Amino acid sequence: MTESSAKPALPDHLSIDPKSPHFNRDVLQHEIGVRFNGVQKTNVEEYCVSEGWVRVPAGGKSKDRYGNQMTVKLKGVVEVFYVEG
Q1: 46 Cβ neighbours under 8 A, 6+ residues apart
Q2: What are the backbone dihedrals phi and psi of residue 74, each rounded to the nearest 5 degrees, phi first?
């Protein structure tokens, strides 16, 4: 069980999109929590702690030119952590 305790350090900038240069498969194999302005978010697609923003789905059925759901960038205080359990 030493594998579960040897989690990689959380990066400053992370994306769940495999095409992104900020995608990190090793980190995403573990459950990550994101707290934005003190509220835990479950729909974050990308975050940057140092710049203070998260990217979340815009809602609705809007798609970008590649067929991906549109997202909105929100600015504020970002905290990331590994979810235990």
Answers
A1: 13, 14, 15, 16, 17, 20, 22, 54, 55, 71
A2: -110, 135
How far from the centroid of its chain's Cα atoms is residue 58's Cα? 15
Is 78 a residue whose pLDDT tops 80?
yes
The whole-angstrom distance between residue 41's C-alpha and the CA centroid of its chain comes to 9
User: Can you say whether residue 38 is alpha, beta or left, with left for phi > 0 and alpha for psi between -120 and 50 degrees?
Assistant: left
Query: Which residues are within 8 A (CB) of 33 and not within 5 positions of it... i.e. 6 or more apart?
Result: 40, 80, 81, 82, 83
Task: Give the pLDDT band of residue 81 (cuts 50, 70, 90).
Answer: very high
Question: pTM, whole model, 2 decimals?
Answer: 0.86
Record the tokens describing residue 66, joined without a space: 């590649």
Look at residue 2 in the predicted model and tell me its pLDDT.
46
The structure tokens listed for 75 are 């600015």
